[in-house]
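hey all, quick one before standup. I had two proteins in the batch that finished overnight and I want to keep them in one place so we stop losing track of which output belongs to which input. First protein below, input sequence then structure tokens straight from the run.
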Amino acid sequence: MEKKNIIIHEKINIGISACCMGSPVRYNNKGWDMLQNLGREKQDFNWCPVCPETMSGLGVPRDPIHLSGGNGAMVWTGEAIIKNRRGRDVTEEVKLGSIACLETLKRAEVTAYVYMDGSPTCGVYRTSLKKQKRGNPPGIFGSVLLDEELFLIPASDLQSPIKWWDWRRRLLAFHWFRSLEMKNKDDLYKAWYALKFLCQEIDDTWARDMGRKLADLGKISEEEISSIRKEILEVLRKPSTVKKITHSLWKNYSYYRKTRGETVEGIHSPDFRRNVTTIAKELLTMERTAFEEGVFFATSPVIYRDKRRMPKVEPEDIEMDEEIEATLRGELPEEE
């Protein structure tokens, strides 16, 4: 089967907690520019900032709020409430603000959302900023984001080059696969073939089980395709680890050398000691070099390129032989 990176040209729309984009909308009239470290790459996405608390009409500055009696999901069922520091019940206001933000994100057709963990509204896994307390996660708006099955990115991870690289490549794959039209088994299997090496890196046992499941499929219904799509999307939401990413980089570099017969300056083996910033630079170098040479970079199967920056000739399809595919699976001894 022919392999090449999937190139998308449309910018992905990403929702973001407004305080993380520098807007001074927190209760204390402050905010953080969490996108600053992305540099020019920030321009590769369309950003839609929202703030459930200001959309609630609570104003800036305001008394801080907290969940009482349960988590954010329980607020929607009436089992918990939201109070401010003075004990005033602001549940209905915050619910209306959350609904208004969700409507905005739907109009913007966002694929992902960058959330501020520790917030009683936008927090997903924490609703308290106190070091030893998680609060009552998820927050009221965080529970809505989970229900919408968006690709959720913690704002703090935008500060780490390698974590952002991991989120970005999985987001691109998530967006492409979620919007891909699939009518039959062949469509599904072709899509899986593009994503399987990334999925194997994230969860190898699950990915191999999924591969066998797809290989054994007969005629498949739309409901089964939808169910499998949902399962794959769920895996793409899961972060990888530095160790897994580093080994995946080396496997893909080995594939590049076998394909092109060339080396790339600055790419090191997994046992070479360096910091995560250096690893992130190696990943970007390998990603760019593979794209320019028309070589499939399996660990980052979907890439975004502005049409204005595209070369005149698209990279050619590369057909992988069994040895190359085994290298990407990590089943052959790798060159030192």
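OK second protein, same deal, sequence then tokens:
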Amino acid sequence: MTLVRCVDASRTFGQGDQAVVAVHGCTCGVEPGARIAITGSSGSGKSTLLHLMAGLEAPTGGVVEWPELSDRAVERSRDIAVVFQGPSLLPALTVEENVALAAVLTGTGESEADRRAAAAMETVGVAALAGQLADTLSGGQAQRVAIARAITLRPRLVLADEPTGQLDAETGEHVLEVLLAAVHETGAALVVTTHDPVVAGRLGEHWRMDDGRLVVPAREGVL
């Protein structure tokens, strides 16, 4: 029942003397319903590991597998959603158009994409912003919209990369509540990278990246 599994997966950027190993031989897995926080300092490899899990980066060593998901990247993209740390909305589109985009890009018809977008916006409490242009939103509003977009297709796995990292404490807490409520409502597993011990404390499993090496408590690791 493992959604994503890394087996001795590594990721190196560059070649020769310029090579940088971002992730060293990582072995871990995420099961349905998991709530995992990955902590570690800046540059420790947290984001790269998340990108490997999402299929956004290909491992340069080892393998990343999705046993319970499709082998085809296009189909798998319906089951895995990513929430990024920085701005990820298209500024010239409205909130509703941004949220519906996830469904449109995976081949969903326009009317069904609009229906799914409306449901997702209602779930995260941004329905009132539907007609507003993305570039007029506050940071907290933009992250809530990004969460709505992430859950539009009711994914089985949500990967959030420092989702509160650029927000003040109060706004970040609200965004975290929205994210936790959204994955609870959809039944998705959740993996969050974070510097914030408060955020990590809200999640049941704690993993740590240390200079590109993943430390997973033995009782929590899924191989």
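Flagging for whoever picks this up: The chain has a mean pLDDT of 90. Residues 33-47+71-206 form a domain with the Rossmann fold fold (CATH 3.40.50.300).
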